[in-house]
Design a protein that fits this description.
The complex is a heterodimer of chains A (248) and B (256). Chain A is α/β, with parallel strands linked by helices and 248 residues long. Chain A folds into two domains: 163 residues, P-loop containing nucleotide triphosphate hydrolases (Rossmann fold, 3-Layer(aba) Sandwich); 67 residues. In chain A, 36% of the residues lie in helices and 25% in strands. Chain A has seven helices and nine strands; from the N terminus they run βββαββαααβαβαββα. In chain A, the strands form two sheets. A six-stranded mixed beta sheet of chain A has the order 5-6-7-3-8-9, sandwiched between helices. A three-stranded antiparallel beta sheet of chain A has the order 2-1-4, covered by helices on one side. In chain A, β6, α5 and β7 form a beta-alpha-beta unit. In chain A, α2 runs parallel beside α4. Chain A starts with a strand and ends in a 5-residue tail after the last helix. Chain B is mainly alpha-helical. Chain B folds into two domains: 30 residues; 220 residues, Orthogonal Bundle (MetI-like fold). In chain B, 84% of the residues lie in helices and 0% in strands. Chain B contains ten helices and no strands. Classes of the chains: A alpha/beta (248), B mainly alpha (256). The interface between A and B is medium-sized, with 26 and 20 residues.
Amino acid sequence: MEVASLAAVEVEYPGRGKALGPFDLSVEEGEIVALVGPSGCGKSTALRLLAGLEQPTRGTVTRTPGRGETSVVFQSPNLMPWASALANAALPLELDGIDKTEARRQAADALARVGLSGAAAAKPAQLSGGMAMRVSLARALVTEPRLLLLDEPFAALDEITRRDLAADIHTLWTETRPAVIFVTHNVEEAVYMASRVVVMSASPGRTFSVVPTDPALPRPPHFRTTLEFRSAAEAISRDLALSMGRAA
Amino acid sequence: MNRAIIDVAAPLVLIAVLLAGWEAACRIMAIPSYFLPPPSEIARAAISGAPVLFESAWNTLFMALKALVVASILACGVALVVALNQTLEKAVQPLAVALQVTPVIAIAPQVVIWAGLDHPERAIVALAVIVAFFPIFSGALTGLKATDPDLERLFDLYGATRWQRLWRLRIPSSVPFVLEGHKVAGGLAVIGAVVAEFVAGSGGAQGLAWRILESSNRLQTARTFAAVIVLAIMGALLHAALRHAERAILKRLRGR
């Protein structure tokens, strides 16, 4: 069942011209789709449209999950610096009017799921980049979303941390299997995370190609060394180069 | 030598050199002490007048602190109301600026009359409130509007109401700005209090400014200097205390 879609959407900013489209995208229940493309092609704009944070100039955005069922993990952890990890993770529930004790109990649960039960009382400044990102992930998962939008969540993390977090996101995803859209400019990350990779052309972004990857999620430990992984990554890299007008 | 020791010693050495030069100049050139008393005479005046000076300093400080509290409540309250309404902000802004740029000395005589000539302390607090108001108001308003746009987007995403946004995002975001405003306002409140004391010019409110006026009228220049020095030390201590409070609060807020 389709959870969300963009149909022929275009986004234009006054004075800056067209940033996106026409662009189509749809994500099914229990599916992880990755969006890759050159910088400024409108990947994040597409995500903001799906999150309802922005309106398209033309075209239609459809989303079956309501506001409380859609979560976004941004490029930076985006935590309230004055609030503890627990309070940050509980924010969506508390804004939704859920009783504070109950919200904090569920937030503690979400923190435990991302492996941070020991850091509940810590403030963001006391956390490492990877830990802060995990709090951000816990905050996104606390509402048990049906649609999870990830906007380059690993961009600021080192290689080891991003690999750990990528594997953990898959593990967490298997619990409720939300529809996930994962924006990245890293080809290997896209192949690892998603079962379908949409390659976008340079600004204004359109679909250049769609590359299917191994549908078995989560990934086995040595997935990055498999032939499927390598060939999908190469296909995407080639398409990316072509989309930017370069020879493959 | 240890960096920390140098940092402390350097200004002390400079002060000592300047004082020694001053003392020597007064003695060598036989400058009359009503014109420029040597540091040694100022020190004697400070020691002999210490009880009176401390009492006067406390009076001035107490009034400045009272004004700071009143200004803080007023400024934060007005900033909060104004931040919720753009039209109101536009309406209030020119008045607030006018209040800030008008020298307090220009309105002091009238405020003294309004407060009642028998109650110079009321005028002193009122004038100190006027000068302390603006930095707190401006800090609070800036802070309430300086929320992180990414956090704003997050609150949009979760459909936060206006009140949730105010209590959970805008007010906490404004804290560092409000604290900074208080730090500036603390120094200004002392200036306001001193200016008002000068204008009130009465023995009814015996603050440091009154001591300065009194000794200056009597050509007791050493006592004048002693009072000015106490005033400077008091201002510096108040500033240090507010800075310390600012750091402690921010540390508590951010966890480090």
